[in-house]
Specification:
mainly alpha, 123 residues
Length: 123
């Protein structure tokens, strides 16, 4: 079992990269130096719980996610996709209505609706 700092530092790096953030951008958002972020990621400096909470907020992950061992990149991508879908459904009532409408629709009808929406999007 890896020490928790090893797990956390690897996950900070994974989630930072997933968010397409540089170390410098993360540092600026946290109001710390670039070298602080670098030191956390390489394991030179440890991270206190207060700072870890801030990092999680910026990276939009929970403490549980940042401390999870053996995080699979594919799993992260799926979780991120699911977060985005849920955010869209919660923020756009028309998308929620569209999705609910598809629940009891025939598969062929859903495929036609998707093609129609894609065509409308291109115009």
């Amino acid at each position: 079992m890896e020490p928790i700092n090893e797990v956390v530092r690897e996950n900070i790096k994974k989630y930072r990269k997933l968010r397409k953030m540089t170390q410098k951008e993360l540092a600026e958002t946290l109001d710390v130096t670039h070298s602080s972020v670098s030191a956390w990621e390489i394991g030179k400096n440890s991270i206190d719980m207060s700072r870890l909470n801030e990092i999680c907020t910026v990276l939009d992950v929970s403490i549980a996610e940042i401390r999870e061992e053996d995080v699979d990149d594919e799993k992260i991508k799926i979780e991120e996709e699911n977060k985005k879908i849920m955010e869209t459904i919660n923020n756009r009532p028309e998308v929620k209505r569209l999705m609910i409408t598809t629940f009891d629709s025939r598969n062929d009808d859903v495929i036609i609706a998707v093609k129609l929406l894609e065509a409308l999007k291109r115009r």
